[in-house]
Amino acid sequence: MSDRELISKKDLLETTGISYGQLYRWKRKQLIPEEWFIRKSTFTGQETFFPKDLIMARIDRILNMKEDLSLDELAGKLSPLPDHIQLRKDELVKRNIVSGVLMERFGPRDAGDTIYSFEQALVFYVADRLLRNGEMSLDEAQQLLDTMKEHFGKFEGKPCELYFIRKMGVSVFLLASAPTEIHVETGAKLVARLSLSEMIEQLQSQLT
After folding, report:
1. Looking at residues 187-198, what average pLDDT do you find?
2. 161 forms bridges with which residues in the sheet?
3. Do you know which InterPro entries this protein is assigned to (predicted)?
4. Which of 101, 82, 110, 180 is nearest to 141 (CA)?
């Protein structure tokens, strides 16, 4: 999350008009992910910050939905992996969620009306993100897809991060629980680090 614009807790409460109590009640109900509460040292001591775009979008959704739903019902709607969301293959491309190039390469046998689960769509979405950024080749995308399909489900919706490491032309992908800290050997490059909770949130926002 280091590349994201952050907002302090004080500024967040002032901007949104919510109270300290509401914020932490929503946290306890898992409406706001634990990993979004980022502790940082400042000249006044330790302060809490949040990824600005994600927290603002999430609070807006909560405020818009809380009049009609209980907090427990909201938690179901905002669950880490929304099982109720399914997407057609052709819809993914039509809405520019995933590029046609990626789907032609990795889903050529699936008809346009093939239905993907949210988790399947997420795997394509993450791969497409790295391809569009020019950080990954199509061959490496296959490695990523295989890694995600084999291991992502093992986290059972708990926060995790994807690490993309390359050394002397050899690529490695790994998934790790979040928050965590990794150190790579000399000569190895951390090409990308993605919070999959952020990827889920971004994909959900594109679908609503």
Report:
1. 90
2. 176, 195
3. DUF4004
4. 101
Q: Tell how strand 6-8 and strand 38-42 pair up.
A: unpaired
pLDDT beyond 80 at 83: no
Instruction: Give the torsion sign (CA, 148, 152, 158, 164).
Output: negative
The yes/no answer on whether domain 6-77 falls in CATH 1.10.1660.10 is yes
Following CA atoms 147, 32, 59, 23 in sequence, which dihedral angle do they give, to the nearest 10 degrees? Answer: -160
Encoded tokens for 161: 């991060």
Torsional class of 62: left (φ above 0), alpha (ψ -120 to 50), beta (otherwise) = alpha
pTM for this predicted structure: 0.71
- Ranges for all domains in the chain classified under CATH 1.10.1660.10: 6-77
How far is Cα 2 from Cα 48, in angstroms, rounded to an integer? Answer: 14
